[in-house]
Specification:
Blueprint lengths: L1 E2 L2 E4 L3 H10 L5 E4 L16 E2 L6 H15 L11 E3 L2 E5 L4 H12 L6 E3 L1 H7 L8 E5 L3 E3 L1 H14 L3 E3 L7 E4 L2 E4 L3 E3 L1 E4 L5 H7 L8 E10 L12 E4 L5 E5 L2 E5 L4 E2 L9 H14 L9 E9 L6 E4 L6 E5 L1 E2 L2 H17 L10 H4 L8
């Protein structure tokens, strides 16, 4: 029987960042079912950090994580892991209440945000179709998801841990004080960071599920009109929450911000959602879709209260939940990894402004 101190099931950003911190305290082994790290969610994200999504707890986790991205730890990665990329949230007359609520929510976290009118928005993004008011944040961060995944993996290996891809877990059992995976690998602590499959992993271990909710998100890629340089446009979001677009590598990424209930799977874009993405683009901008260059879908998995969870299962000693990152996994990963380390190893609570009971899974099992 091969032994380890920590077994982490799931090689996305949550599992790898947590394993990188735990590997400083013992041998960590990460098991990823697919051949590539971050295959299902982390690798299909637009990889952005901003305060316009999520609840207050998510914004707090995002704020705590931001210094890691602004000034990466020495030796973490040879290339930058983030770059400044402004964001613009815009509203027509009907969506002004949502924009006002967003401004109120963001004010505590983003000091540089400003209310902008039609003239300024036209200068920032000339293709927007006459929005009434906007919220501009010049401090958004575009993250390099692949660089982050590979750098956290290197940290695990540098500390004597292992990353094993193509390693789909089939059996989990409790033997004495250890969790045993497939009869060959044992550790006293098992971290369930399996994303949309986290409840299924818990079922293999005989642990009560959290009731996680995977939801499909669609992105399409279009070419800008000939002669149009969209590189300086901001990451633009409708305050109504049904559209965003992001210029990237000479093209434009577009999403209808859909949340379609889905079973855990290798998500594929649905034709209706692709058409709806094109419809929202043509509704909110002067752009017209003549060709879709590329399309994809990914799963965003939420807890019931839409706040990520980390903590030991109340019904299974040594079984540790790290799940429900929703669409916030990349931008909250450093904070969540610190929380995992504190709860597993012991230590002071690391994230001011959020209480442990807001994160730990006990909240889902209260009578």
């Amino acid at each position: 029987m091969e032994g380890a101190d920590f077994l982490v099931i799931g090689g996305g950003i949550a599992g790898l960042s947590a394993a990188a911190r735990l590997a400083r305290h013992g041998r960590a082994v990460v098991l990823e079912a697919e051949e590539a790290l971050g295959y299902h969610s982390s690798g299909r994200s637009v990889s952005f950090s901003h305060y316009g999504i999520g609840n207050e707890a998510v914004r707090t986790l995002t704020a705590h994580s931001r210094p890691f991205y602004e000034v990466q730890p020495g030796g973490f990665c040879e290339t930058p892991i983030s770059r400044i990329f402004p964001t613009l949230y815009f509203a027509d007359a009907e969506a002004l209440p949502q924009l006002d609520a967003l401004a109120s929510n963001m004010a505590e976290f983003a000091d540089a945000i400003e209310i902008v009118g039609p003239e300024r928005m036209a200068a920032l993004c000339p293709v927007l179709a006459a929005p009434v008011r906007g919220l501009f944040d010049p401090t958004g961060l575009k993250l390099d998801a692949d660089a982050l995944l590979q750098s956290f993996a290197r940290m695990v290996r540098a500390s004597g841990g292992e990353i094993r891809t193509g390693r789909r877990v089939e059996r989990i059992e409790r033997r004495g004080a250890a969790w045993v995976v497939d009869g060959t690998l044992a550790a006293p602590v098992l971290i369930d960071a399996a994303g949309a499959w986290a409840d299924a992993v818990a079922a293999l271990a005989g642990v009560r599920p959290l009731g996680l909710r995977p939801k499909r998100r669609t992105i399409v890629v279009i070419d800008p009109p000939a002669g149009t340089d969209a590189a300086a446009w901001p990451f633009a979001h409708s305050a109504a929450g049904d559209f965003y677009m992001l210029p990237e590598a000479g093209q434009i990424l577009v999403s209808p911000v859909d949340e379609v209930d889905a079973d855990p799977c290798d998500a594929r874009p649905d034709d209706y959602d692709v058409a709806y993405a094109a419809d929202r683009l043509e509704h909110y901008t002067s752009l017209r879709v003549t060709r879709i260059a590329h399309r994809w879908a990914g799963l965003r998995t939420f807890t019931a209260d839409r706040t990520p969870t980390a903590g030991f299962a109340p019904d299974a000693p040594g079984f540790f939940w790290l799940a429900g990152q929703g669409g916030y996994g990349l931008q909250t990963a450093p904070a969540m990894a610190e929380i995992v380390e504190a709860l597993v190893i012991g230590g002071d609570w690391p994230v001011p402004g959020i209480a442990p009971e807001q994160i730990r899974p006990e909240r889902f099992f209260a009578a």
